[in-house]
Amino acid sequence: MEKDLTKGSIIKHILLMSLPTMVGMAAQMVYDLVDIFWIGMISSEAIAGVTVFSTIFWMVDALNEIIGVSSISLVSQAYGKKDYHQTARSIEQTISFKFLMALIAATFMAIFLEPLMSLFVDETVVGYGLDYGYLRLFFLPIMFSSYSINTVFRCLGDAKTPMIIMISVSILNLFLDPIFIFETVPFININGLGFGVFGAAIATVVSQSIAFFIGFLILFTRTHQVKPHIKGLFKLNKDIDIKLITIGLPNGIEIFFRNLSNVVILGFVSLFGNEAIAANGIAGRIFGFAFIPLFGLTMGASSVVGQTIGAGDIRRSEKAANLTGVLGSIVMLFFILMAFGFGENVLSLFTNDPIVIKYGTEFLKYGSVGLVVLGYGLGLTSAFSGSGYNFPFLLSSIISRWGIQLCILIVAINIFNQSLTWVWLSYMFGDIAESFILFYFYKKGRWKEKKAWQ
């Protein structure tokens, strides 16, 4: 159901919007973790191949971020000021424009994927990555469009619908993965299809496609105040599309350079062998789970901020952002305790290679130290996403990843020949720097003057 977030308890609205978002995002992350779990039964080289592909693949997430972040402010602010016609037009353009951009991005990525992967690993590992990656690229427009539909529901105050969809298809993916991957399904010894790593990709794209079509049908057939139409998907609107590009452009550039920095960091990790790459892949997915509550809080609060800015209540928006920052720090403190207490046990679920487990456990410990500070900083960014003032995302990422983290890596690894531990420690310094920059821009207050529909 659509929900007016401009009145009532702020923390109640944040939690009501965030908790279903967290659960839904956790279910979505299960796609990748389940893939890694089953792929780990093939070999460490298979995990390394999927890790290298995924690191390169997420560079195209810049386009998803640009349009997705823009749509948060456009849809939530239009809905907050009760302009339901403008809300519907924004929804239509978000879905169709992102589908088109994903199609273009997937085509370019497919051309350059193999030579990019060959920079980091040998032919065998590249083969695993390509077996998994080409199909994922082919279905990229469906994946991006599914993200858009989930974002739209949240902007309208409905976090429950995308949660239910994502949980359902994640359960489906859990069962499809071993059937498509193995000739004999582990644990239950029934016949599978034996497609190997390619089977993991099939299971994922089937699940994501079902999620898209279910969400699409619900959004376009329900009878609420906001009524997008299918025919609106086939006609681009220049004014809205320009906003979809420009409002979130700093976020897109930020995501591109952040993911590009991950590619460069992967180069440092690869100096320590395929086991280090595999450990980076497994621990990285586990870190993804740690960020789900934080991103869920931020996305939920962004809808609150966007609607209240649309309604003209800046003071309420400020309270929402501050509460989100405090909650974010608490959540990340809990993950740090888990990483130090149970990191090795969790890694052991995905591989029995002792070197991979050792490297991955160190990553979970040393890489998590700065997350309490980052939790507060990223919580405050709900003010930026909701208002449409996204420049701080770009500057904080460029300085923290390229100016701090990569410089530390160059000095520690290239000059002083330090161990892999310094790769993991570099994340701590980058996280702390990013948090201070975000806090500075939040206190400066430019976001309070910004509106998407000016």
SSE inventory with pairings:
Blueprint: H1 10-39, H2 44-57, H3 61-80, H4 84-117, H5 123-138, H6 140-155, H7 160-181, H8 197-221, H9 238-246, H10 249-270, H11 274-310, H12 314-347, H13 354-366, H14 371-380, H15 382-387, H16 391-415, H17 421-444
Protein name: Multidrug-efflux transporter
Membrane topology: Multi-pass membrane protein
InterPro entries: MATE_fam (IPR002528), MATE_MdtK (IPR050222), MdtK-like (IPR048279)
Give the distance, in angstroms, between the N- and C-terminal Cα atoms: 28 Å
Sum up the overall morphology in one term. globular
Main sheet: strands, sense, barrel = none
Low-confidence stretches: none
- Which value, in Å, is the CA radius of gyration? 21 Å
Helix content: over 70%
Tally of discrete structural domains: 1
What string, H for helix and E for strand, traces the elements in order? HHHHHHHHHHHHHHHHH
Relative strand content: under 5%
Number of helices: 17
Mean pLDDT: 90
Tell me the structural class: mainly alpha
Let me know the number of strands.
Answer: 0
Subcellular location: Cell membrane
Organism: Petrotoga miotherma DSM 10691
GO molecular function, one term: xenobiotic transmembrane transporter activity
Keywords: Antiport, Cell membrane, Ion transport, Membrane, Transmembrane, Transmembrane helix, Transport
